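Lab channel / #folding
Pinned by the channel admin:
"Please post every new chain as: sequence first, then the structure tokens as a reply. Keep commentary short and put observations after the output so the thread stays searchable."

First post following the new format, from NK:
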Amino acid sequence: MQNIIELTTPFCEDAISQLKVGDVVSITGDIFCGRDAVLPRICKELEAGTWMQRGIDLQGGVIFHTAVSPAGVGPTSSNKLEIEGSFETLSSKGGIKMHLGKGAIKSETVEMLAENKAVFAIIPPVTALLESQTLERECVAWPELGMEALYRIKVKNYQAIIAVAKGKSIYGIE
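Reply from TO:
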């Protein structure tokens, strides 16, 4: 049986550098949730240098590709244009160390994550289980987007599988 690697947010670079494709991780702490409607907005503010005016520190953080609804959270496809297109800015300018979602991503994104010492982890679509491990939720930006706004959730023992690390992909894309 494979060992589960316990991680607490925010992540230090050393913790991320130890991860490899296929590792199973258990994440505890704060996770930011966003998908196609909000991730381009975050990137625009990071690019413009205005993001820190919000008082939201993404450094060492996790961005979960999901919406937050009363029913809970579950991953959306990370290879949607608006989502996968946000990986580089979120990692290089925002300091995000883990992107959490589902589905295969492009080889260029795999390489970019390696350059930024970040990883991509997949999480199965198990909304009911994830809801039981979600301790708190707070809308932190763009409340007008409803469940697609930027949320910060506090979690305990979210389990995921590292799908991309150090330029390698679980999907065989290299």
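NK: DSSP finds six helices and eight strands in the chain.
TO: also worth noting, Helices lie at 13-17, 39-48, 81-84, 87-92, 107-115, 127-132.
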